[in-house]
Amino acid sequence: MATAYVFDAVRTPFGRYxxxxxxxxxxxxxxxxxxxxxxxxxxLDPAVVDDVILGNANGAGEENRDxxxxxxxxxxxxxxxxxxxxxxxCGSSLEAAVQAARAIEAGDADVVVAxxxxxMSRAPWVLPKTExxxxxxxxxxxxxxxxxxxxxxxxxxxxxxxxxxxTERLREKHGVTRERQDQYALRSHQLAHAxxxxxxxxxxxxxxxxxxxxxxxxxxxxTSLERLAALAPSFRPAxxxxxxGTVTAGSSSPLTDGASAALIGSERAAALxxxxxxxxxxxxxxxxxxxxxxxxAPVAATERALERSGITWDDVAAVxxxxxxxxxxxxxxxxxxxxEGIVNAWGGAIAVGHPLGASGTRVLGTLARRLAATGGRWGxxxxxxxxxQGMAVVLENVSGGAA
Length: 403
Hints:
Peroxisomal Thiolase, Chain A, domain 1; two-stranded antiparallel sheet; 30% helix; 11 helices
């Protein structure tokens, strides 16, 4: 089998819900990162791109179902470049990267653009069709921004609780305190702000044309433990003991808009693109468990991906885990023999944001760049996924050491 590599990664700055990117259609965001990823490969003839695979968790609105093909056309790539859209909710773009790697390893492709997009600001309301014509009663619109909608009545009630309530149950099960959540959230903002100041994102992030957003909009460098501690719980009433709510807006990833992409290729892709590979895709895994404990799924996914890569935690130099919530991230970290210092060293989703379909290649691209910058050999990108799933990808740095 051929070997699949990450050659490059790029994303937009992530915008707050209703913020700087809310006026941009998701298909335009997707077209921008796809076109930018192709443009950044100096030797790449766009016609040799074998496929564009994009993740998207919504698809109900301006994505027009197959946003990848729309992005190809809107980016003015040759009409012969195909595009397919995949949906594994929060893991959609990591799934896109895995599917790209499989195509390369099977010999079906040499150059694939993988990525994802989400405009949570522009996610539409949907109105279900009626069982009978001319209904006399009222009908309810459902928001497609986040979480369950139009739930099948046969679904178990404990499976369909909100993401926030699910996280409250997870932190109860694993003993994650409110204080630790606030401390971790503060860490995310501080590290993200410091990483931007240090220039770590300079080669990873490209502003969307016509906007003045040059950094991730949700980052709050001026926040503090006192401010975070003053926030009311978002999903349960506050109370004494373990049953009261502890998960707040400050310890949750914010609703966000953005797009990301990665250039995945074979060994032959170096000559086709004019780029040298950053990292080898060494292993991956997808797992599933109880839907209400989705936040813990990265534990099993990462363990399985490490085993398939032939390495152990002792070999791992960098971890990028998508911070859906501080409580679920901490529960995962508590399960691993890993030093917190190697985890999300450039900040995480609590600070930079979590545009659902774009987050997988955001963590993958950040991991590849972190390994190149530090010279670390092995790294893990992992993400929790609603309805009980988790994914992980192991990368091996082949960039030649620290940049």
